[in-house]
Each structure stands twice: as structure tokens, then as C-alpha cells.
Amino acid sequence: MENVVSLPIKTLPIRTLMGPGPSEINPRVLTALAQPAIGHLDPAFISLMDEVKESLRYVFQTDNRLTFPVSGPGSAGMETCFTNIVEAGDKVVVARNGVFGQRMEEMAIRLKANVVTIDDEWGQPVDPEKLEAALKANPDTKVVAFVHAETSTGALSDARTLAGIARRYDCLTIVDTVTSLVGSPLYV
Asked: pTM, whole model, 2 decimals?
């Protein structure tokens, strides 16, 4: 086989990662990642996935059996939520208090939703009174979307209160928890 190329394994420098991601990986996780791969139909994989889903239900504080992980960056998870919940013409209230609130708005617009935005200063949490006012003014809203902890500014919004308001108006809620999940309590 003359077309086979053998490349040496590169040794990467050890760095302390201080940004929002990628982040440091626990040595236990690195060891687990070195395990052999198994197929998605393997009984061992199915058993492992059941454990992961159960753990996620604990983290999300839910009993919803449809809880599952999404393999990909946070934006892939956000896109998954929007494309599976929002249809053209749906009214979506999006809270913007940083970069990722704006990204939620962009996703809803691409899906041809009727988008209503509520704005707070960057660095400030989403104001529940503004959400309440937006829903009163738009009673046909289907979805409320907000970022729990806005990565770009560090603002932590009150997810429990915001989700409670959305529930009172019979709205589904999309909550970006990329930087808050596990690190901050999340009750929606």
C-alpha cells in the first residue's frame, strides 16, 4: 500500500484553560475518553445512555423521560430546541441581554417566527416585569426564550421566575444553560 501515510502522534502543550470553553478536563474524564468506542446499538451503549439520561434528569430537576444529551457545541443544542419547537408564524418572545440572547433571536427569525424582543442592558439579568408585559401584550405567544447565564456578560437571570411567568401564559420555554448548568441551580 504505497498511498498509506504514517503520521507521528503529536504531543500537545499542557495549558491552563481559563475561558468559557473549551475548559479543563478532569483526569477521570480523560481516562474514560480513552476507552474503546462502542456502537450506538450495542446493549452496553444503550445501558450507558439510560444512565446519562437519568443523570441529566437529576441535573435539570425534571422527571421528563424525553430528556437526552445533544452531542455538539451549545449552539447545536439551542438550534435543536428551536427547530423542533418553533414553526413559521409562531410568536416567540426572546430576551436579549447579551450575545447569546441575540443568537436566539437570529435562530427564531431564520425559522420565520414572529419575534418579539425584550431588551435589558448587557450585564443585567432579564427583567421579569418586561417579560410579563410582553406576554400580556402578546397573548398568542407560543415560546419564551432566554439565556440563564449570559456567557458574554456573566449576567445570571432568575430562570424559575421567568419560566413561571411563561407557564402562566401557557408558553413553552427554551432556556440556554450552557454556562450555568450544574454550576448554578436551575429550576424551571
From this structure: 0.81
Q: Which residue ranges in the chain fall short of pLDDT 50?
A: none
Q: Could you give the CA distance from residue 155 to residue 167 in angstroms, rounded to a whole number?
A: 23
Q: Are 163 and 188 spatial neighbours (Cβ–Cβ below 8 Å)? A: yes
Give the pLDDT score at 107.
98
State the pLDDT at residue 128. Answer: 99
For residues 58 and 66, give the distance between their C-alpha atoms in angstroms, rounded to a whole number. Answer: 13
Cα–Cα distance for residue pair 147/114, rounded to 1 Å: 19
The confidence score (pLDDT) of residue 1 equals 55
The answer to whether the beta carbons of residues 104 and 133 sit under 8 Å apart is no
C-alpha 97/C-alpha 146 separation (Å) is: 9
What separation in angstroms does the CA of 186 have from each of 148, 161, 166, 175, 182?
Answer: 8, 11, 15, 10, 8
The answer to whether the CB of 67 falls within 8 A of the CB of 60 is yes
Per-residue confidence (pLDDT) for residue 16, from 0 to 100 = 87
- Look at strands 91-96 and 114-119 and give their pairing: parallel
**Which secondary-structure segment (H or E) carries 66?**
none
